[in-house]
């Protein structure tokens, strides 16, 4: 079965979908994207598919991954690995459809029947955070994550630290002790302020603090980890198992959060999970994207013992009104119950794309860039 053609669809507000076609009529879908760098990734996908894949055997997933990664003298990084990720997802989708089985069956079979998912909580005011968390708790969610703080200077005031703590206190108070609460510093905090915030947040029994530092300062994770009882996590801006290696060897994190759309796809996410398992490190895959990426991430999660939870941004509890789930022929495919999503059982990724809808949405202009924040003195702040 040979790869014969491909199409790319830019979908509002910031998604890119890949359709790979074969000479036997079997197609596969992937989601190659770097948020805010859509056109760059589009060019990389076209270069890789046209230069290496057309006319090749679609079923050789591992060989194609190695060729697309290793044949370039310059390799890795967010653009190339995200392009490779979408291609890899589509190849696995083709393979699962060819054998008429879910991808997780091809990876060794499922180790669980349902997967805990967590819900993002927005807002900056403690009362609004608490109100939103209570609503989502009533909808069945039992795990929550909050981006906190916003703009945060390298040296901050006590009042700014207090505001961060107040938000977490409101969230924990709203959901009680029978729920998981995570915090994403989003790389917005300097080393000295990260240590202070971790100290102040220890009493709230957090499941983890994500990205307490930017990847550029990864060597400091070990020091932070030794000085706090809060589990530390990172990974959404790591692009292969090689990027995670030093964190694991140095015992610097308790949780890793690779993204199936940035870390090289299903093939590499599975290897990162296996690598983390050898160090007794949990995996909570990052995935604030569309249903293709979500489905791809679940395929690995259901076959990996140490994948304990899955990020989602799909509005699973209200599929009929979800902009992301509208891309599927069956928006209610991901059955959601009491904070869990059920194991997909369809072939390949387990989803069917509403191609007519995708083509309609692809007529729109997609020109999303992440916000650029500034401190009050005009200097650039981390987003």
Describe this entry's structure for a reader.
It is a single chain. The longest helix is centred in the first third of the chain and has 21 residues, at 78-98. The strands form 3 sheets. Strands 4, 5, 6, 7, 8, 9, 10, 11, 12 and 13 form a 10-stranded mixed sheet that branches. A 3-stranded antiparallel sheet has the order 1-2-3, with helices on both faces. A two-stranded antiparallel sheet has the order 14-15. The chain is of the alpha/beta class and 383 residues long. A hairpin with a 3-residue loop joins strand 1 (3-11) and strand 2 (15-22). The protein has 2 domains: 3-101, Enolase-like, N-terminal domain (Enolase-like, domain 1, 2-Layer Sandwich), CATH 3.30.390.10; 104-349, TIM Barrel (Alpha-Beta Barrel), CATH 3.20.20.120. It has helices at 38-53, 61-70, 78-98, 103-106, 126-138, 158-175, 191-201, 221-226, 241-249, 265-277, 291-301, 355-361, and strands at 3-11, 15-22, 27-30, 114-121, 143-147, 180-184, 208-210, 232-234, 255-256, 282-283, 310-311, 336-337, 340-342, 373-374, 380-381.
Structural key phrases:
globular; 383 residues; single chain; three-stranded antiparallel β-sheet; Enolase-like, domain 1; TIM Barrel; ten-stranded mixed β-sheet; alpha/beta; 2 domains; 36% helix
Sheet-strand content, in percent, reads 15-25%
Radius of gyration: 20 Å
Average per-residue pLDDT, rounded, comes to: 96
What's the story with the biggest beta sheet?
Answer: 10 strands, mixed
Q: With helices defined by DSSP (H or I, 4 residues minimum), what is the helix count? A: 12
What's the architecture of the largest domain, going by CATH? Alpha-Beta Barrel
- The CATH topology of the largest domain: TIM Barrel
**Fraction of residues in helices?**
25-40%
